[in-house]
Each structure stands twice: as structure tokens, then as C-alpha cells.
TrEMBL record:
Species whose genome carries this gene: Oncorhynchus tshawytscha
Subcellular location: Cytoplasm
Catalytic activity annotation: L-arginyl-[protein] + 2 S-adenosyl-L-methionine = N(omega),N(omega)'-dimethyl-L-arginyl-[protein] + 2 S-adenosyl-L-homocysteine + 2 H(+)
Region (Disordered): 31-56, 369-388, 514-536
Comp. bias intervals (Basic residues): 37-46
Name recorded for this polypeptide: Protein arginine N-methyltransferase 9
GO biological process: methylation
Length: 905
């Protein structure tokens, strides 16, 4: 009997661990996947007939469906249900719950078998039966998201929420992906009055000057097209590639009485043709398809295509008499790009490994770890730059050069646009003006709307724009000083502007900055302090870098591994790893003590395993090890740290082969025997292996759960995972963390408002846009840097919520918290962060300067005016893993603390 129970536990353990290990990660800040998945052909619907044979078939099928469901044969059950409900739609109400359950179970199986097309076919069949079932729609969205079809997933969540506005699962999903549908910068741009006004003026001038046929490329909400129409253009066309934005533009244009007067096309400008899409070439193209790196939205390609196919020929210098209505031109007319070298710790720790030791493990053997941002164009998985608002980087930045002119581009000169990508790589020599480590080149630009007017995206401007960041990827720590010259290469391969720091000139010699090819040479890890290794002065650092360069020709393979920026920052987070190390050590010591009292394996009432040879080293797992499971998302060394404690057999859920290889190398170099570390997902791939897992008789001593996403939100399904994990623990075993406590404070922040909705009652440039785009407002802001957020603190920090992972039944869903205003003002938001308690003594904060976590904030529906000393009641709700907060003034005075909490039923 015991054996049977355990087998069931182990079997379900295998599945549950998969559940524990896999989750939707809504937070990846990589390029959205714009591909669309293949669609199933529409099937003919059966027409139900009334006859006894059919009734017999229906009832037998229904019985079979129920029997199969009972036997957990979900595939067959699903087919039976389909048959039943197609033949007898009257049974829909009766069978809907079981049908859904069957669908979800079968879909999970198909998912784990990789039968993706079958999975979506099932959903589409289900939706033919239940077209307005928000639960099915939402669940299909979750599968779509996991498969990388993010736009489509977001569309499904939105649809589910429209069908049932208070459906918590859909709300949570929608909030997490809304920015894939309507990116947050739309709000910023529409709130940027100066930018709106300048564009409007430039367009008005051009139209009044005779450009009367206009095409708005990438119209977004339709604003620039409407400006052209309002200025009197005879014909206005607009195109938009995002379906959601296209639909929004149509709504906005109609609401502003311009329906039929602006032709909006749902397509990429590159696919447009004359006369198929627009009757004739236009005299003006307006566009703001520029990102922080200027070319990232494809403006070069779009304008080359527009000049060749959609625009009238440009005004020529030979024949200046051609009237503007007969010549083509573009707003913006061109741009000037600037760059500047900077030292910035925050950038460094997201792109380079800065520590030589993590939680007791030497890192040298990890090989070269790179972030996915690199100036090389060879690797498809890398992007040339990332974006940051320099003024908001925690810890700030130090300029190492003056801003330099990197590029000038004339959007009205098609030859220049076409020549850009075939241009020779240009080299600039920049006098170094500041002292510090070279971490990145920051780039911004001036967008010349016309001869008179321009917009700047510079770090010192009061704009909403971010700057493009080209991180330096060399493993060396390269201290620059005034008098040096930094040599930068500027190129424009595949229509991306690429900047790369290649060398430093000092005292008449040139030192290349590319990688040290000999992995065995010691490296000077920059260290988090900015001046990394106090024993090495700048000169010695340079010499040691040179020593590496001397061996550049050495053969031998390079161990080159890519980590996401957040994974890199996590590796650099020493307090995090040290805390885990201490907490794990304490647990193992306690369990050892308990075992020595009880005798081996007694605690679980299991057969004593045959004794094998005694452990040969301190880190050998030995015959009766402690089992530790790390189900962190992405790359994590916690399993290895556990294995290095000795007498531990650790299971890692690191999936990528390259990442597993890094862990193996680190294990070898740190004396952790191979058998002490296993990769969980390798094992479960092979069903046989699952059943023969060495730990089948065992329960876990520790399960490490990844509870907070980098973006600052509680990981989805955390509590469900904790409940499962709790069942899989041995006596005295522990979930890490055992508890997380949510903290927050009252702030007044206009910045957060500007990023979440179009503000104010005033129409935007006279147009009614806000109510439409504000439908996509999401009350929770993620990826905040609270330490640099422009805001006024209106209270101290206060405990908002506790999540007990060791006893999930003890949790509540609602809690009222009272907090006193420490200053007068308007509470616009409640930023929040977490204290993660690994055990009673050891905890970590997600709001800490070494943290790889960012913070999040709830933006209040309505700002709340407070006077100093007022008591504010915060009603905090945690539904699934999404937090909502509303605030009101508390009339009676009282002490800070919980007013009320409602337990989970
Ligand atoms: N964001 C800047 C980029 N499109 C600005 O679908 C600035 C980022 C930013 N449509 C913080 C602040 C800011 N044909 O809806 C999008 C896009 C569409 C096209 C048709 C094409 N060839 C294209 C190319 C793009 O154009 C719209 C605007 S694109 C970028 C705008 C405040 N973070």
C-alpha cells in the first residue's frame, strides 16, 4: 500500500515538477514575435437531426466520454464530447464543465508532446461549440503565449475580458501582456505636448505650402494623419501594421468625424502599391516610426520603399520651380545621431559577469558569458542595442567622452538612404574626457522635422524618450582616463545603426578591446563597486589586459554562453546567492541532526537502501543524500550551490543545453561530483527515466521556488506551486522562500500617470483620442526603478500583504491596511516590492541596489488628495497572483497596521 501511494506521489511528482518548472514568462523584454500561427480550415458544421439512433449514439458517446474522463484518457474523452455536443447542442449547458476540463487536460498533454497544431485544432473545435466561452478563450491565449504568439495571445485575453470584465484569470493575463497590444510609449507620446505640437506645426506648414496628398506611415492612433486632414490636405492615407492599433485608429478617426476622409489600411507600408492601395503617389509622407536607436522600427527600409513606390519625385535642385504638390517630401526631413561613452554600473551588471565568486563557487570556469545585446550582426539571437532612460538609471552614469556626432541622415535623399547600408564602416577617434570604466556607448538623436523644427531624444532633455545603449561586451575591465582616445566603429549593417568600441589609443599605442581568447588567463572582473580591484591600479589593469591580448592566437574552443540581461544581473547579485547558501546550509545541518537522532531513512518509514562505498569526497552525495530541487526560471546556480554543500543530490530545472554545460563546468571546477547535480528536465523527457529516477523513494528536502518575476510581480501560479511543493517535502524539509512579505508606500508621481494613460480632459491637439487608447490602461506598472522614479514620498513604507508558502491555506485574499500620510499631496500610485524570507533569520529585499529585480506599482484609478497626518486605508487584494489596491481616506485615527483580512475559503 505504502509503495503504491509513493508511486502515485512520485508519478504525480514528475508531472507536478514539470508544472513547477514551466510557466508563462510574460516579462521578457525581447522583440515581440510577430509571426502568426497556421490556422485550421473551417469545418462544416453538422446539422442535428431528431432520431432514435442519434439519441442512442449521443447517450453512448456521453457515457464513453465520462468513462474515458474517469480513466484519464483525455484524448478519447475529448473526441466523444465533441461528438455528443455537435449532435446534441442542448447538452451544452449540462456538459460544459466536464468538456472544458477534458479540453484543458488534453491540451496539456498535447502541449507536453509538442503536438501544437493538434492542440490549436482542439481549441478551435471547442470554440466552434462555445464561441463566447471566456474560460476557453483565455486558456487558448495562455497556450498561444507559451508558444510565442504574443500578439494573438494578448488578443485572446482582451476578448475574454470583454466577455467577462471581472474574470480574474483573464484580467491577470491581460494586464501582463497589454503592452504587447498597445505599447506603453503610446501614452507617453500622446502626453508629450511639445512633440505633438511640433509635429502638428510641421505638417500644417507642409500642407499649407502645397503638399496636399499625404500618407501617414505607422499611424498608431491616427494622430498625424488627422493633423494633415485638419490642415486641409485633400487626400490622406494611413497605414498601420498592428491589428489592434489599426482598429484603434479606425475608432479614433470615426470619433473625430473623419470617417471616410482618411483611408486607413491595415498593412505594412512596404506592402503598399499604387494604384492598388492608394490611387496615386503622394506629395508628403509623415511618420514617427523611429525607436530609441532611430532605425529599429525600419524607417530606412520604409522610406526607401516609399521613395521608390509611393512618393512623388523629390524637389530637385535643377528644377526648383516644380510646385510642392508635384514633388515628394518626408516629415521628418532627417536626423543627427549622437553618441557618448559612459561608465555605468547598472549597465555593466546587466551585461557582463562582474563577480569572481557566487555563493562560494568560483566563476572562472563559467567561460565567457554575454548578454544578448551585441554589436556583432552574426548571431541572430542578439540585438544591437538595448534602451534605457539614462537619467533614471540607479546609480547614475559618468560620461567618459563629450557627445559626438555619429551620423547625419537626410530622409529626403533616397540615394543616401540606399547607400547607408553599403557605406564603409567609419571610424571615429574620441578624446576621453572623464576617468572610469568603459561600460557602454549611449546614443540619441535629433529628429529634424523640417528646416526650422526638431525634437531631441537626448539624456538631458525633458522628454519621454529613452536612449539606445550599446554595452561593451569585452571581458576586460578597461579603465579609461583623460588623454586616451577611444576608437569607435560606426556601421549600418542590415539597416540597424551599430556602434562598437574597438580600441583605445594611449601614449601613441593602440590597444584593441576585443575579447581575450585564452579562457585560462585570469580575468579582472570589474566588481560591483565601479573601482573593482583596489589592488590593481589602472596601469596594471591595462597591462594585464594586454597580457591577455598577447595570447590572442591561442587555439582551443571558446566557451561562449549567452544569458538574458536579468539572468546576468542575478548572477552578479551576491547577497542573493550568499543568503541562499546560508539558508541551505542551515537546513542541511538541521536535517543531518535530525537524521543522526532518528537513524538513516527512519524519518520516512522507508526501506533502508543498501549501503554502497562510503563517500569519497566532502561533496559526494553519498548513499542517503538530501534531495534539493531548484525550479527557478531561466539560468540559476542555486542547485549547484546546494550540491556543493555535500551529501546533497541537487536537481536543476535549467533547460538550455548551453546553460547546463556552464553548470557542469562550474561543478567540475568547484569539486562538485557529476552525480551530485542532475538536470530535471533531461530526465523527464524520457518516460522510462522518469520512472527509474534515483530519488523515486524520496521526498525533497528543499524545493526552491522562483517567486518574484524580474518585472516586480508575483510569479503566476506561485501559490499553486507552493501547495504542490509542500506535499512533496520530507519531514523537516523546506520551501525556499518560506514566506514573502509585500511592502508599499504612498507616492505622488506624475511620471507614472503619464506612462499609464493619456492625461487631462483637454483633447490631444484638439482630437478626441484619450478615451479610446485609455481602454488599454493597465493599473499595474512593471519594471520600475523606484530609487530613481521621479516622485514624492507621501508615507513611510508599510507592510501590505504576507504570502506564506509553507502553509498556503493560511493565506488571505483581501486585506485592509492603514497608513498615515507623512506629507500633503496627491497619492497617484502605490509602488510595491517584496521581502523574501528564506527562513526565520535570512531574507532578501527586491528593492535593493544589487537586486536583479525591478519594482512594480499600482496606479490608482483616481488620485487621492491627502494632508499630512491623514490616515489612508488601502484595500489590497491578491487574486491569483495579481495585486490590486484601492485607497480611501480613513476618517478615524488609528495605528498603522492591518485593519482587516479575509482568509482564503
Ligand atoms: N517608441 C519610442 C517608438 N509601424 C515610437 O506598429 C518614445 C520607446 C519610445 N506601420 C519609451 C519612449 C518612447 N508600416 O504602431 C506602431 C507600429 C507602426 C508601421 C506600417 C510600417 N513600415 C511600420 C513601422 C512601424 O508604427 C507605429 C509607431 S512605431 C514607433 C514609435 C515616446 N520607449
Amino acid at each position: 500500500m505504502l509503495c503504491c501511494v509513493l508511486n502515485t506521489v512520485v508519478l504525480s511528482q514528475c508531472n507536478e515538477n514539470l508544472v513547477l518548472a514551466h510557466g508563462c514568462d510574460f516579462t521578457q523584454r525581447r522583440m515581440p514575435n510577430t509571426s502568426t500561427r497556421p490556422k485550421r480550415g473551417r469545418r462544416n458544421r453538422r446539422v442535428p437531426r431528431e432520431d432514435p439512433a442519434r439519441n442512442e449514439l449521443v447517450s453512448r458517446s456521453l457515457e464513453s466520454a465520462q468513462q474515458c474522463l474517469f480513466n484519464q484518457d483525455y484524448g478519447t474523452a475529448f473526441v466523444h464530447y465533441l461528438l455528443v455536443l455537435n449532435l446534441a447542442p442542448v447538452l451544452k449547458d449540462f456538459a460544459s464543465e466536464s468538456f472544458r476540463f477534458t479540453l484543458f487536460k488534453w491540451a496539456d498533454e498535447l502541449d507536453s508532446l509538442g503536438r501544437i497544431q493538434d492542440l490549436f485544432d482542439c481549441y478551435e473545435q471547442a470554440l466552434e461549440l462555445f464561441p463566447t466561452d471566456e474560460v476557453i478563450i483565455n486558456s487558448m491565449g495562455e497556450h498561444l503565449f507559451r508558444m510565442g504568439f504574443r500578439d494573438e495571445a494578448a488578443g485572446h485575453f482582451h476578448k475574454a475580458l470583454k466577455l467577462k470584465p471581472d474574470y480574474p484569470e483573464a484580467k491577470e493575463n491581460f494586464y501582463r501582456v497589454a503592452n504587447w497590444l498597445v505599447e506603453r510609449w503610446h501614452f507617453l507620446m500622446l502626453n508629450d505636448r511639445r512633440r505633438n505640437h511640433k509635429y502638428q506645426q510641421a505638417i500644417q506648414k507642409a500642407v499649407e505650402g502645397g503638399c496636399n496628398t499625404v500618407l501617414d506611415i505607422g499611424t498608431g492612433t491616427g494622430i498625424l494623419g488627422m493633423c494633415a486632414k485638419k490642415a486641409g490636405a485633400a487626400e490622406v492615407y494611413a497605414c498601420e501594421l498592428s491589428k489592434t492599433m489599426y482598429e484603434l485608429a479606425c475608432e479614433v478617426v470615426t470619433a473625430n468625424g473623419m470617417n471616410g476622409r482618411i483611408k486607413i489600411l491595415h498593412m505594412k507600408s512596404l506592402e503598399m502599391e499604387v494604384p492598388k492601395d492608394i490611387p496615386k503617389r503622394v506629395s508628403l509622407v509623415v511618420t514617427e516610426t523611429v525607436d530609441a536607436g532611430l532605425f529599429g522600427e525600419g524607417i530606412i527600409e520604409s522610406l526607401i520603399h516609399a521613395w521608390n513606390h509611393l512618393l512623388l519625385p523629390p524637389q530637385s535642385t535643377q528644377d526648383p520651380s516644380r510646385p510642392p504638390s508635384q514633388a515628394g517630401r518626408v516629415i521628418p526631413a532627417g536626423a543627427t545621431v549622437f553618441g557618448m561613452a559612459v561608465q555605468c554600473l547598472e549597465i555593466r551588471r546587466h551585461h557582463r559577469l562582474c563577480v569572481s565568486e557566487i555563493g562560494g563557487l568560483a566563476t572562472a570556469a563559467a567561460g565567457e558569458l554575454h548578454s544578448p545585446v551585441s554589436c556583432s550582426s552574426e548571431d541572430d539571437s542578439t540585438e544591437p542595442y538595448t534602451t534605457e532612460r539614462l537619467s533614471r538609471l540607479p546609480g547614475g552614469y559618468t560620461p567618459l567622452t563629450e557627445p559626438f556626432n555619429a551620423l547625419d541622415i537626410d530622409f529626403n535623399n533616397v540615394q543616401e538612404l540606399e547607400g547607408l547600408c553599403s557605406r564603409e564602416v567609419s571610424r571615429v577617434r574620441l578624446p576621453v574626457t572623464g576617468e572610469g570604466l568603459l561600460d557602454a556607448l549611449a546614443v540619441w538623436f535629433q529628429l529634424h522635422l523640417d528646416q526650422q523644427s526638431s525634437l531631441s531624444t537626448g539624456p538631458k532633455e525633458d522628454t519621454c524618450w529613452e536612449q539606445a545603449i550599446y554595452p561593451v561586451q569585452t571581458p576586460h575591465n578597461f579603465p579609461l582616463r583623460p588623454g586616451d582616445e577611444l576608437i569607435v566603429e560606426i556601421s549600418c549593417r542590415d539597416a540597424y545603426l551599430r556602434l562598437c568600441s574597438v580600441a583605445v589609443a594611449r601614449d601613441g599605442r593602440e590597444f584593441r578591446l576585443d575579447d581575450c581568447l585564452d579562457p585560462d588567463k585570469p580575468r579582472n572582473n570589474p566588481g560591483p563597486s565601479g573601482n573593482p580591484n583596489p589592488s590593481l591600479n589602472a596601469e596594471a589593469e591595462l597591462c594585464s589586459a594586454l597580457a591577455c591580448l598577447g595570447t590572442e592566437q591561442s587555439s582551443g574552443p571558446r566557451d561562449y554562453t549567452m544569458l538574458e540581461c536579468a539572468e546576468m544581473a542575478l548572477l552578479n547579485n551576491q547577497p542573493y546567492h550568499d543568503s541562499f547558501r546560508r539558508a541551505l546550509a542551515k537546513l542541511i545541518t538541521n536535517l543531518k541532526d535530525a537524521r543522526s537522532v532518528q537513524g538513516p531513512s527512519q524519518g520516512q518509514g522507508l526501506e533502508v537502501m543498501p549501503l554502497t562505498d562510503p563517500p569519497s569526497g566532502p561533496m559526494d552525495p553519498g548513499p542517503d543524500p538530501f534531495y534539493v530541487l531548484d525550479v527557478s526560471e531561466g539560468f540559476s546556480v542555486l542547485s549547484l550551490m546546494a550540491a556543493s554543500q555535500g551529501q546533497v543530490k541537487a536537481y536543476s530545472s535549467v533547460e538550455k543545453t548551453q546553460h547546463q554545460a556552464v553548470l557542469r563546468r562550474l561543478a567540475r571546477a568547484n569539486g562538485v561530483p557529476e552525480e551530485a547535480l542532475e538536470f530535471w528536465l533531461n530526465q523527464v523527457e524520457d518516460e522510462q527515466a522518469v520512472l527509474q529516477r534515483p530519488s523515486r523513494e524520496k521526498l525533497w528536502s528543499a524545493i526552491i521556488l522562483d517567486c518574484v518575476e524580474t518585472c516586480g510581480l508575483v510569479r503566476q501560479k506561485l501559490m499553486e506551486k507552493a501547495t504542490l511543493a509542500r506535499c512533496l517535502l520530507e519531514d523537516g524539509g523546506q520551501i525556499f522562500p518560506e514566506r514573502i512579505v509585500l511592502y508599499g508606500m504612498l507616492v505622488e508621481s506624475d511620471t507614472l500617470l503619464l506612462e499609464s494613460a493619456v492625461q487631462g480632459q483637454e483633447p490631444t491637439l484638439g482630437f478626441n483620442i484619450a478615451p479610446f487608447i485609455n481602454q488599454f490602461t493597465v493599473p499595474v506598472h512593471v519594471f520600475l526603478d523606484l530609487s530613481t522614479l521621479q516622485c514624492r514620498h507621501l508615507s513611510d513604507s508599510v507592510e501590505l500583504f504576507i504570502l506564506d508558502l509553507m502553509n498556503t491555506n493560511a493565506n488571505y485574499t483581501n486585506r485592509d491596511v492603514k497608513v498615515q500620510a507623512s506629507a500633503s499631496g496627491r497619492v497617484t500610485a502605490v509602488p510595491f516590492w517584496y521581502q523574501i524570507h528564506l527562513n526565520e533569520e535570512i531574507s532578501l529585499s527586491t528593492f535593493n541596489q544589487d537586486s536583479h529585480w525591478k519594482q512594480a506599482a499600482v496606479v490608482l484609478h483616481q488620485p487621492l488628495a491627502v494632508r499630512e497626518g491623514d490616515w489612508v486605508r488601502l484595500a489590497v487584494t491578491l487574486q491569483k497572483s495579481s495585486i490590486s489596491i484601492s485607497a480611501s481616506i480613513e476618517e478615524e485615527a488609528g495605528e498603522t497596521g492591518t485593519v482587516d483580512s479575509v482568509r482564503v475559503r
